[in-house]
Predict the structure of Ribose-5-phosphate isomerase.
Amino acid sequence: MLLIRPSSSLLRHAIAFRSLATHSLSKAERGKQLAAYRAVDEMLDSSLEKGIIGLGSGSTIEHAIERIHQRKDLHSVVYVPTSFQTKRLILHYNLRLGNIDQYTSVDLTIDGADEVDANLNAIKGGGACLFQERLVAQASKKFVLIADERKKSDKLGSKYLRGIPIEIVPMALQTVLFNIQNMWENATVRLRMATPTDKAGPVVTDNGNLILDCQMGPIDDPVNVYRDIKLLTGVVDVGLFCNMAEVAYFGGLEDEKVDIWYKQKSGKGSTVVRS
Ligand SMILES: O=C[C@H](O)[C@H](O)[C@H](O)COP(=O)(O)O
């Protein structure tokens, strides 16, 4: 039998990545691209030559990786992925792939978000990636969010209406559902299902777990909601990223503007400045 070994370029093309050509971008994609490019250009510089950078997951981060690919001065940096998707993109663009096992201290992580509030707290996990994202973000000295302007919010849960993503161990499905429903009577919790033409049954995360989406309306106290859900046995992670981001870049849909929200130290705490 003749075995044909595909060349690496064939392998690369076998993976369907989205076309990110600027001329064909929708307004939303252009907004994501603006935020991603600006964040890469401002947050990553050549002095990071031997740096370790974490890369989040989702559609916005694809633009950031494309920008890193364009910036030849950033090719000696090691990139730590937070998902299967991001790992494939790092390989696709021939960037240096690292692993959180090797680098427990990361210089900076850039990641997308589903919603960002006025304190830079975020909902994440719309694409079922949250556990690895938190793992890498927590190991990072700086955590930077990128999104289009539709993700700006006054209160988490008022823009991203699908609910808080919760990653759970499959065996704990019924008990976690029961406990959440008991704790928040008005919450609606659903097991996230895959698109039936792609896969029958539930969405399975990169870690072999399931995702619940927990709708509870606008959230007054995301820190406590995060903690209460996280403490339930069987919960691997909760898509509320509180007090983690230092800066968020939002790309405009109607103009070429990028709004930047960043934390500034004031007294004992910090305030978020908008520019
Ligand atoms: O699970 C996915 C991640 O948390 C993403 O970073 C988040 O959902 C934002 O994704 P996107 O950039 O596609 O809006």
In short: Residues 164-239 form a domain with the Alpha-Beta Plaits fold (CATH 3.30.70.260).
